[in-house]
Amino acid sequence: MEWKTLAEKLDTYCKEHNESPKSPKDIGLTSNELFKNIKEVEEEVWKKGWLEIKLLLDQDTDFEDYPSKQKWIATNYVFLQLFGRYKDYLRVRLDLKNYVFDKGQFVKFVLQSNSSLISDIIQSGDRDGSVELRWLFKNYYPNLFAEHIVGVAYYFGRDQSDDKEGTDAFIDKTTNLLFEVLGKNVLERSFELGKFLLESFKQAHGSTEKDSK
Fold first, then answer.
1. Average pLDDT value for residue range 46-62
2. Which of 93, 96, 95, 49 is nearest to 75 (CA)?
3. Is the Cβ–Cβ distance between 203 and 154 less than 8 Å?
4. What DSSP assignment string belongs to 4-71?
5. 168 contacts: CB under 8 Å, gap ≥ 6
6. Which residue of 1, 83, 103, 190 is most buried, as measured by CB atoms within 10 A?
């Protein structure tokens, strides 16, 4: 079954029930359709989805010449181009109450599906000087990229701004912070991002509360 069909089933269930499906049967999959549990369904969606993201990035003949930060920004937007169609799935599955646990699962999905692309961007950053490979922490760098894109998915699922301007700003500021953390000027960027995240959090959850009334 196509990953987009599975994603649509997940998204439809989340939209109609405002909760995550507990088993493949909840989204209309019978026991003989290869998936033992809902986690396997999600793993298939993220694995095949990221394969398509890589194909789309490969079609950009200029991608390899981009600076590493621009490569990562482009990756974020292609991710949203595909997964943004399933906003209710992202919103419900990345619920704030269970965010730490759910984020860990989604980070694993990203790393399992996307480790080579992330590694290439990190190496590109090392070459262009935007990433400093600190020997004590460099093995954790892929996790930071994975956590970043899961954070983008979380924010996008709650973005009520016109034309997703909030998500655009979120990607811009958090990508700048990510590369500053991996480079220099950490404190300056962290302070700027902290103010932005606080205001964004208030706006996102304020809109969600209004919609629920």
1. 93
2. 49
3. no
4. HHHHHHHHHHHHHHSS--SSGGGGT--TTSS-SSHHHHHHHHHHHHHHHHHHHHHT-TTGGGS-HHHH
5. none
6. 83
